[in-house]
Amino acid sequence: MPASIDPSLLQRLGRLEFLSRQAVEGFITGLHKSPFHGFSVEFAEHRLYNAGESTRHIDWKLYARTDKLFVKRYEEETNLRCQLVVDCSGSMWYPAEVDPDGLEMNKLKFAVHSSAALMEMFRRQRDAVGLSLFSETLETHIPAKSSSTHMRSIYHELERLLDTSDKRRKGTAAVDALHQIAEASPRRSLVIIFSDLLDRGGDIDSMMAALQHLRHNKHEVVIFHILDGATEVDFDFADRPTIFRDLETGAQVRLHPADVRETYKKRMATLRKELEVRCAQYRIDLIDVDIAAGVYQVLSAYMVKRSKMRSSRF
Q1: What are the pLDDT digits (tens) for 185-223?
Q2: Which of 63, 67, 69, 139 is 20 to 30 A from 9 via CA?
Q3: Would you give the DSSP letter of residue 52?
Q4: Can you give the residue range of the structural domain that contains 41?
Q5: β-strands 81-87, 128-134: how paired?
Q6: pLDDT band per the 50, 70, 90 thresholds, residue 170
Q7: Which residues 6+ apart lie within 8 Å of 124 measured at CB?
Q8: How many CB atoms lie within 10 A of CB 30?
């Protein structure tokens, strides 16, 4: 494992499992519900016996009670395919500070460390993992596989993202990238997106259309909406004339934070609320992330929440 991806985070996450909340189409037996039914693994329901079929799976105890022939039907469990999607645009390099895990953290590093931790979970579960990286284009799309060689290649790609010498000004075109990923990923995959969702177009309708494309193809979608809470949400800058620089275009503006703080906070709150409401409509998990909380705290809290939600469904 690359040295700059903190191995202690993987250890601290322990034996948590990331289980699919919808039926998945896998290719080996694993932990997740499959849409295909057969005579294997876990009992699902009874159905009436049809004359001429095998008597092997008749429930004779139920026959003794009801005097009717019923066949046991089982629901196969399978592994999933997970596509990790990381926004590596210029805005993801913001800011640089130490988080509770002791790491100098920015949004991109949060995404990389979180992706590495999740991939380790999927590796233990024998699930298949792929990686997509986007900025102003879809830069990398590695389809999901489960081999150890494949996993090492993804670690290498994640490690490359942490190379500060590649800190270029790259724009964000999340909408185009998500449409491409929706088509390139096998149906019923789990797609986990790490992004600040600050797309260059700024059109939330287009963003939601791209996310709906993923859902239309039966993908389960989880979005970690990564922001720096203090500055990007609360606009908590010192009240003195300050130069703000766009990390994607290099454009600069000089202003006094107090003059724009309330307007900025209202617009950001409106954007976040609209994302929350519309993601809920499409049954997309949207997790608001403040990088100051740290990778371990964010992931462990979500794993616990997810396990409870899954238990309530099944």
Answers
A1: 888 899 999 999 988 767 899 999 999 999 998 899 999
A2: 139
A3: T
A4: 32-77
A5: parallel
A6: confident
A7: 15
A8: 21
